Amino acid sequence: MIQNPKPQKFIVPIGPQHPALKEPGHFEFTVDGEIVTSVAIRLGYVHRGIEKAAEERNYVQDLYLLERVCGICSHIHATAYALGVEKLAGITVPPRAQAIRELVAELERVHSHLLWLGVAAHEAGFDTLFMYSWRDRETVMDILERLSGNRVNYSANVLGGVKFNVDAAQADAIRRGMDFLEERTHHYYNIVTAEETFLRRTRGVGTMSADQAEALGTLGPTARASGVQRDLRIDSPYAAYTEFPVQIVTASAGDLEARFVVHVNELFESYRVIRVILDNFPPGEIEVRMPRRIPEGETISRVEAPRGELFYFIKSNGTDQPERIKIRTPSLSNWASVSATAPGHKLADMPMILVGIDPCFSCSDRSVSILPHDRQSKLWTWEDLRQYGIEYYR
Amino acid sequence: MDMKLTHPWEEAVDEIRRWARINSPWAIHFNSGSCNGCDIEILATITPRYDLERFGIKLQGSPRHADVMICTGPVTRQARERLVRIYEQMPDPKFVVAVGSCAISGGAFRGCYNVEGGIDQVIPVNMYVPGCPPRPEAIIYGVVQLLQSLKPESQKG
What does DSSP say about strands A308-316 and B26-31: parallel, antiparallel, or unpaired? Predict the structure, then answer.
């Protein structure tokens, strides 16, 4: 005889190795029948200890280390870091270098958004769109390779400027690529706004109001799809965004469809800005000399990554190695929106809601240490951390 | 003395198994803490321009169905246990391809407090594909080289 007829909780664990997600993350969905009632997210499988490692290397080595925080938005990480270090050193970077930084950042946004479009379509079971968008994404990969010599991790930045120039032939290749992509993107816009089967997976799913988006601290396209007017390229322009401004792209519905619309419209905006930069390239040098030792001080550097605001805090102590580098990535802020919007949806919608925030696990996996009430700050040395890591996983 | 005679049909079955394995290996992808760069390139290999599937290779979700593990990342302490578990879940014979500099030696993350420094510190690796990240062509070449190495001497060429 069953003594306790109370409904039992049923938990569906997913991950860390999971066919739908390319990166490790562990999720526990509590379900009532088919409906999800709560979500627990467990991150940290990609935590490598980059912030600590950055303290052990010099400023130039850090540039290449920090690029590898995330392979999808590697340029923007290096840009945020380089802008911060240049501010500390009191160096003015030539306008042409800043324009190239913006150009590569927008090309990166194009590649990242097309990548997301494909992956999100794949989660919806729409593999045809996945294949098409990734085929077209090769256009921008070719452009990046032609500019920098590498498809991913192109290391355009050096401290004090950029590594490569853009000549007329390359500019023409970029224009041709943008023309092709613009035509294709119109096609994608039609699909994400008019394709009935696809809309059934996206319309009204994962809806987040503007207030909710603000309260949860979401960033980037996820917040803009809920009508939050927040884009650092406009609010606090960096690099060359004052000379080559972009228009903010928002939507109001806040559901997955709105996120698709925002991503696709941002693509159009990126194509436009890339063309404007190519037509009005400032002449001149692309690099200035940078001192090896950075004067003592601390600074913050904020840039708009494809997924939202990327925040760097850099503290120098007058040597050639930084004292502290703190990174806050947009994906980490956006995770909270998943656990807030998922309850009430079917389990089958979960992959779409997860991918809807354009998650990047390698960005998210930070070590978070909660201090006790007395707020005594604590200094971790390299040995402490290593020992802590060994003990923790023993 | 333990003498085991092989039946002719056993040899024939082995031959068929090997033929099947080389012509349609199923692969599983595991990210043990990489920066994502290698992972998007692995994904790019199954998309139209590179199309890894023309070699009969299928990217598969479950380790229990997989013959080849395509593994990226320097192996973080947290992912280590999972990596071993997934490797053990794969049926024999199994093969591991380490993709990217950090999967080979730790790469840019070598010496970080939370990484082991390479896939081969944890599980045996059959093929290494260097690069940060390697081009999709390089990943395909690595996998095809692995398949070539499975062929008996008489069929290599």
Answer: unpaired
Residues of B in contact with A46 (CB under 8 A): 31, 33-34, 73, 76, 79
Cis peptide before A16 (omega within 30 of 0): yes
The domain defined by A52-330 carries CATH number 1.20.1250.20: no
Out of A24, A151, A389, closest to residue B77 by CB: A389
In a mutational test of the A interface, the residue from B28, B36, B62 whose CB has the highest number of chain A CBs within 10 Å is: B36
Rounded Cα–Cα distance for residues B142 and B119 (Å): 16
Q: Which fold has domain B25-144?
A: Rossmann fold (3.40.50)
Domain boundaries, chain B: 25-144
Q: Are B33 and A47 a contacting pair at CB < 8 A?
A: yes
Q: Where are the domains of chain A?
A: 52-330
Q: Kindly report the number of other CB atoms within 10 A of residue A96's CB atom.
A: 20
Instruction: Check A68 against B81: CB less than 8 A apart.
Output: no
Per-residue pLDDT tens digits of chain A, which is 394 residues long: 456 556 667 888 877 776 666 677 788 888 888 888 888 887 778 888 888 888 888 899 999 999 888 888 889 999 999 999 999 999 999 999 999 999 999 999 999 999 999 988 888 888 899 899 999 999 999 999 999 988 888 888 999 999 999 999 999 999 999 999 999 999 999 988 998 888 888 888 888 888 988 888 888 898 999 989 988 999 889 888 999 999 999 998 888 899 999 999 999 999 999 999 999 989 988 989 988 889 999 999 999 999 889 999 999 998 889 998 988 888 888 888 888 888 888 888 888 888 888 877 777 666 656 566 666 666 667 677 777 767 766 6
Of the partner residues B49, B63, B77, the one whose CB lies closest to the CB of residue A138: B49
